[in-house]
C-alpha cells in the first residue's frame, strides 16, 4: 500500500510580541484550513507555523552575507514547498512589517508561482485594513502566487466581536478564508465548512483571555 503524501499548510507569522495577536490569527486560520481540508478529502494534513521573530537575526545575517543559517534555510524550504501558504503580518507605518518584507525578500521570485496564498494582518485600528490590498497583494503578485479572494484583517476591536447586520465578525471571516484556501489546495473543490452556521466553538472569548492561552506555561 502506497503512503499518501500529506498536504502541507504553512503559516508565516511576523508578530513581535509574546503572546502575539498576529500569531493568534495565524493559528486560527491554519486550524480552520486544516479542519476544512480534513472534511473535504482523505489525505493527511500537515500544518506548520513559522515565527519570524525567532529568525530575525538569521534573516538580517542572510541579507548582508548571502548565506542562510540552517534554521532559515529550513523555513524558506517549508514556505516554498507548501501546498498552501498563510501570511500574517502586523501593520507598521501603514504597511507590512520590515521583518515580514525582509523574509519574503529572500524567497526566489518564481518559487511561489501558482501557489495559493491567504493574506492576513493585524492592527490597532480598522483604518489600516487596506494594507491587505495596497501592500500584501502586490507583494505576492510579484512572487507570482495566487492570492485568495478573501483576506482577513483583525483590528483590536474585532477580537471577541460577533459582527453585525452589515459585516461578518472575525470568526466568520476566518472560516470563509480558510474554506477558500482549503478549496484551492484540494484542487478547487468547494469546502462545506466555509459557510457553516456558527456553533459552540465560535463562542466569543475576550481578547486578553485568548492571548493568555498563548503564553508559555
Q: What would you note in describing this structure?
A:
The chain is an alpha/beta fold and 217 residues long. 38% of the residues lie in helices and 18% in strands. It is built from 7 helices and 7 strands. The protein has helices spanning 21-40, 56-65, 70-80, 98-105, 131-142, 170-185, 207-212, and strands at residues 7-13, 45-51, 84-92, 95-96, 116-123, 146-147, 152-155. Strands 1, 2, 3, 4, 5, 6 and 7 form a 7-stranded mixed beta sheet that branches. β3 (84-92) and β4 (95-96) form a beta hairpin. α1 packs across α6. The chain is globular. Residues 189-205 have low confidence and may be disordered.
What's the pLDDT, averaged over the residues?
Answer: 85
Structural class: alpha/beta
Radius of gyration, in angstroms, nearest whole number: 17 Å
End-to-end gap: 42 Å
What amount of the residues lies in strands?
15-25%
Any descriptors?
7 strands, 217 residues, seven-stranded mixed beta sheet, 18% strand, alpha/beta, single chain
In brief:
The protein has 217 residues and is an alpha/beta fold. The chain has helices at 21-40, 56-65, 70-80, 98-105, 131-142, 170-185, 207-212; strands at residues 7-13, 45-51, 84-92, 95-96, 116-123, 146-147, 152-155.
Helices, strands, pairings?
Elements: E1 7-13, H1 21-40, E2 45-51, H2 56-65, H3 70-80, E3 84-92, E4 95-96, H4 98-105, E5 116-123, H5 131-142, E6 146-147, E7 152-155, H6 170-185, H7 207-212
Parallel strand pairs: 1-2, 1-3, 3-5, 5-6, 5-7
Antiparallel strand pairs: 3-4
Helix pairs in contact: 1-6
Amino acid at each position: 500500500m502506497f503512503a499518501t503524501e500529506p498536504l502541507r499548510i504553512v503559516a508565516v507569522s511576523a508578530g513581535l510580541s509574546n503572546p502575539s495577536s498576529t500569531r493568534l490569527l495565524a493559528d486560527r486560520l491554519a486550524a480552520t484550513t486544516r479542519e476544512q481540508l480534513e472534511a473535504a478529502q482523505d489525505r493527511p494534513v500537515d500544518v506548520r507555523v513559522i515565527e519570524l521573530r525567532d529568525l530575525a537575526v538569521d534573516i538580517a545575517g542572510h541579507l548582508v552575507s548571502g548565506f542562510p543559517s540552517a534554521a532559515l534555510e529550513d523555513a524558506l524550504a517549508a514556505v516554498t514547498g507548501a501546498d498552501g501558504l498563510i501570511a500574517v503580518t502586523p501593520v507598521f507605518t501603514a504597511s507590512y512589517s520590515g521583518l515580514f518584507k525582509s523574509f519574503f525578500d529572500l524567497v526566489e521570485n518564481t518559487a511561489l508561482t501558482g501557489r495559493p496564498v491567504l493574506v492576513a494582518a493585524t492592527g490597532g485600528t480598522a483604518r489600516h485594513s487596506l494594507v491587505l490590498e495596497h501592500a500584501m497583494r502586490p507583494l505576492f503578485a510579484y512572487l507570482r502566487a495566487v492570492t485568495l479572494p478573501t483576506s482577513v484583517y483583525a483590528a483590536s476591536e474585532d477580537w471577541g466581536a460577533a459582527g453585525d447586520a452589515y459585516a461578518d465578525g472575525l470568526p466568520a471571516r476566518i472560516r470563509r478564508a480558510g474554506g477558500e484556501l482549503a478549496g484551492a489546495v484540494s484542487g478547487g473543490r468547494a469546502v462545506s465548512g466555509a459557510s457553516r452556521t456558527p456553533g459552540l466553538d465560535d463562542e466569543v472569548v475576550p481578547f486578553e483571555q485568548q492571548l493568555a492561552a498563548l503564553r508559555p506555561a
